[in-house]
Amino acid sequence: MATPGGGINTTVALLKQNRAMVINFLKGYMEGIHYMTQHKDHSLQILQRYFQNSDMTAMGYLYDETTRRLEKDLRASQESIRFHLDLAALDDPRATKLSEKDFWDASLVEEIRRSGFIDQLYKR
Q1: Per residue in 11-22, pLDDT tens?
Q2: 5 in a domain, yes or no?
Q3: Which of 85, 79, 43 is nearest to 60 (CA)?
Q4: Within 13 Å of residue 50, how many CA atoms lie on the same side as its CB?
Q5: CA–CA separation, 8 and 12 (whole Å)
Q6: DSSP code, position 75
Q7: What is the pLDDT of residues 35-79, one digit of tens each?
Q8: What domain range includes position 32?
Q9: 4 within some domain
């Protein structure tokens, strides 16, 4: 994702053992992003329930801030990855020597993109 607030992580071992499962998980995550951006009212209800907060102004702000930062194809920007590495460097200075490419494998999202899944999802 393009926001420095999170990400989706897994191990190399899991990718080798069950790449199809990880791809299916990512597709489901993308469907969740699509649903959230297309169904604001229901998404606000869900946010209220999980945050246990009935303040619609606060939930509206959370929704707007979240959806504004979501990348429908889950492509992380280099700036976002660098932000996390710089944050890690506060605890371990060796992180400054790492490259964005050391921790980001875009092959999964590229495979999903090439399959036409994202285009089909947003045509619905």
Answers
A1: 889 999 999 999
A2: no
A3: 43
A4: 9
A5: 13
A6: P
A7: 999 999 999 999 999 999 999 999 999 999 999 988 888 887 788
A8: 12-123
A9: no
